[in-house]
Amino acid sequence: MVQHEKKIMPVKHLISFEELLKKYDEHLEGDDPFLAATAERILYAQSEYPELRDGFSDFTLLEKYKGVIDRILQDTFTEALSTNEIKVATLPYQNTIIKSSKRFQKIISEAGKEYEPELRSLGDDMDYIMSCVVILNFYYGFQLDFSRPYFYDIPDANGVMRHYRVLYNADFINIIPTEKSKNITQEDVDELLARPNDVDLWMDKIPPESFISKGFVIANLFDVTMEQAISDIKSKLISKDHLAPDNFTEELQETFKSFFKLPNIRVGFANFNVRKDQFEAVAGMGFESYLLNGEVIVGCKRALCEESYRKLIKENSYFAITDVNRMAEVSSGIEPYAGLKKQGVQSAIFAPIAYENKLLGILEIVSEKKGVLNGVNAQKLDDVLPYIVSALVRNNNEENNRIDAIIQNECTSVHSSVYWKFQEEAKRFMNDQLEGRAPTFREIVFKDVYPLFGQIDIKDSSKARNLAIQRDLMIQLSEINDVLVIALKKWNLPIYEELIFRVSNHLESIKEMLFTNSEQSIFDFVKDEISPIFEHLKKSDVVLEKHILTYEAKIDMGTDSYYDHRKNYDESVTLINKKLSLVIDKRQESAQAMFPHYYERYKTDGVEHNMYIGASISENTDYNDLYLNNLRLWQLQVMCEMENVHYALKPKLPVPLDATSLILVYNTSLSIRFRMDEKQFDVDGTYNARYEVIKKRIDKSYIKGTTQRLTQKGLLSIVYSQKKDELEYLRYIKFLRSKGCFTDKIEIVELEGLQGVSGLKAIRAEILYKRDQEPEKTYTYEDLMEALKE
Q1: Would you tell me which of 23, 178, 378, 567 could form a disulfide with 318, CB atoms 3.0–4.6 Å apart?
Q2: Regarding beta strands 606-613 and 598-604, do their DSSP bridges make them parallel or antiparallel, or are they unpaired?
Q3: 492 or 435, which is more confident?
Q4: pLDDT band at 377 (very low <50, low <70, confident <90, very high)
Q5: Cα–Cα distances in Å, from 9 out to 57, 189, 212, 480, 734?
Q6: CA 500/CA 282 separation, integer angstroms
Q7: DSSP 674-707
Q8: Which parts of 157-273 are beta strand (E)?
Q9: Above 70 in pLDDT, residue 411?
Q10: Closest CA to 395 of 357, 440, 425, 430
Q11: How far is the C-alpha of 193 from the C-alpha of 349, rounded, in Å?
């Protein structure tokens, strides 16, 4: 006999067999001698225990009266069927077992010693409310749709969870009011239906234990694990093939009518755009939306009232309207009531479709009759919403995949800050396809954005690379020479002497400087003339074979040449680029949080980055020049941090390379356009192209009147053309100097004119290198303003 902690319920349960015993009283007086004899035996067995008729709430007595209870229930639990039927004598919606069939006992036994059968609960509050609905129907006579399936979830002998649906036979139970019960009117029922989850209200109307449930019920269990126990709604939604046919929406309408047992309902759906807080029509599937009321896009706050907005958008809970006309009248015609009334809707249920706490859309169920859709039968959607969510998530994923495919095909990968713009265009492109129009992907342009450019370049990278190549070639030629000298001594052939002469000439040609064509010339010489002879020599002499194999072991498979010093150089450049890229990429996360902006970063011999900020790039945030100031200050800090990271890394590099830093300040807004042919953003227009010219040439510029390059190790160079930019950056540098980023050494220089560009100046600030950096510490423009007040 299984019992659990007593829950607060509107009924107090008394176990009684009076209704069943009344049947035997009738049999005793009847004409059938067999039934009379059976009735006499059962009534005699019970006669000594009047409490079995009167009822008892002390469930421990079930064990005491087990023998006589088995006798009373012998016809109900026929022995011949006991091993086949899954049957339990119990209390309604409770876990107390009065008697069970052998099949049920076997199932419980196989579930394990620790397992106790327990009904799948709807939750204590909902169990209370559903019990109240039963009372409203069976005692008060209201006609409410309360049919909800109950299940036992029981693991089998293999640990596989099996599901058993419960059907109750309530022939042997009565519902009796107590002094706590109240009179219930239609107005009370309307109020309850309007607030289906307010358990306090339901407890007020139908207080706890205000009724007595006297008797017992027979629960017949049916194994539905392997059966088709999913409604047509679930079947259609879970089937991938049903997502897009022409008759899909018509079939879904009919299925929902069967599900709700209402012939006059219609189903709609509206997508939810979280970025813009708006509802959008579903393209290409024939769905209409009663919230959109014929429009394609409607803001959520325009389509909903304050309460419905809170429930659907904020809480993701059901919103039911039982009487649209009345609500339209009392609300003075606000939405959604006015729009629904205009469409002939009299009652409605709106169900939010959410996945992982993110709202995807609104399922709309509407009827032309008042009251037929309400908060109570809205709860039936609990059984199908997971399938609706699954179908919608899959559909959204497929749509996103199609959008991504369009973007990738038309545009290649794009930065997250501007991805929304590409999504909008791809969605328009896809909708044009679905509606049968010729789709074209329009160019993406962001106007009035301010550029920021910065780079950390490896100083004299060309010289360092050429030096590495030069050393590798000299070592390789020297070892080739050693092999040829041994060959000449052994065989004294003029060809070996001639090759030694040519090797010496190549060594002499690169001893002082590596010319542009030297590397290829030596590579061709080795490949065409040395390698074939070495293959011959390996077969001719064991000593020479050993020398040649030692030489070949040092040849890199990727370059077919010596790759020692060059490898050290390439590894050093790779390590520098990797470390510096990690710094700025990581710091970009906080910069994007300040204000969304376009960001791209390139690895060359060093790391350079472009940023564009402006109102057109931000989808929802209002732009202010404060955010440009903030990003400029942020850029200065990150450049200093990258310099510190580089010089901390320098001693660990195979080749200790130096680096120089540069920032370009451009005080005029410009436009950037995504070039479809090049799959990247570029400045738009002839005038704006001046910015790109400066970017490409500035790091090669010299100080006016000198032979000194602008960029120098240990200095951060800030190039600008306007006096106000100079004052702004001097202010930033002074602030960051107080934070330990710069020393007191600051100079302003003029630059030699570049081709097509003149009048540029630069601030050169000496960077303060610190061992104990605080990479997570960022100072904002507001910090600067506060510091200036001091």
Answers
A1: 378
A2: antiparallel
A3: 492
A4: confident
A5: 14, 19, 10, 97, 72
A6: 79
A7: EETTTTEEEE-STTTHHHHHHHHHGGG-BBTTSS
A8: 161-169, 173-177, 211-215, 217-223, 265-273
A9: no
A10: 430
A11: 12
pLDDT by residue (tens digit) across 40-72? 899 998 988 999 999 998 888 998 899 999 999
CA-based nearest residue to 550, from 467, 504, 486, 471: 486
Amino acid letter, residue 377: N
- Which distant-in-sequence residues (6+ apart) come within 8 Å of 700 by Cβ? 709
Percent of the chain past pLDDT 70, that is, above it, reads 87
Strand partners, 612: 451, 598
132 contacts 181 by C-beta, under 8 angstroms: no
Looking at residue 410, what is its pLDDT? 58
Residue 485 has pLDDT above 90, yes or no: yes
* 8-state DSSP, 281: P
Q: Around Cβ 160, how many Cβ atoms within 10 Å? A: 9
Q: Inform me whether the pLDDT recorded for 152 exceeds 50.
A: yes
Q: Which two tokens stand for residue 728?
A: 């702004």
Handedness of CA 455, 459, 462, 464 (dihedral sign): negative
Phi, psi angles (nearest 5°) of residue 346: -115, -25
How far is it, in rounded angstroms, from Cα 50 to Cα 209? Answer: 24
Q: How confident is the model at residue 345 (pLDDT cuts 50, 70, 90)?
A: very high
CA 151 vs. chain centroid, Å, equals 33
Scored b (16 or more CB within 10 A) or e, 530-566 reads beebbeebbeeeeebeebbeebeeeeeeeeebbbebb
d(CA 696, CA 694): 6
Cβ distance 133 to 380 under 8 Å?
no
Q: Which alpha helices (H) appear in 412-513, and where do they start and end?
A: 416-434, 461-491, 494-511
Measuring CA to CA, which residue among 595, 620, 621 is closest to residue 273? 620
Residue written as tokens 């009065």? 98
Please provide residue 336's backbone torsions phi and psi, each rounded to the nearest 5 degrees: -90, 0
Question: CA 546 → CA 50, 298, 485, 486, 763, distances in Å?
Answer: 111, 82, 15, 12, 60
Distances (CA, A) of 634 to 602, 629, 736, 779: 19, 9, 11, 7
Residue 450 pLDDT grade (very low, low, confident, very high; cuts 50, 70, 90): very high
Instruction: Give the 3-state secondary structure of residue 268.
Output: strand
Q: What is the DSSP string of 179-211?
A: TT-----HHHHHHHHH-TT-HHHHHHHS-TT-E
Q: Report in angstroms the alpha-carbon separations of 3 from 118, 443, 683.
A: 9, 70, 76
Enumerate the H helices of 562-654 as residue ranges: 565-594, 625-649
Which 8-state DSSP code applies to residue 51? H
Taken in order 70, 72, 76, 79, is the CA torsion positive or negative? Answer: positive
The residues, any chain, with a CB within 8 Å of residue 457's CB and separated by 6 or more, are 604, 605, 606, 608, 659, 660, 661, 662, 699, 711
Please report, for residues 42, 72, 77, the alpha-carbon distance to residue 98 in angstroms, rounded to integers and kept in the order given.
17, 12, 12
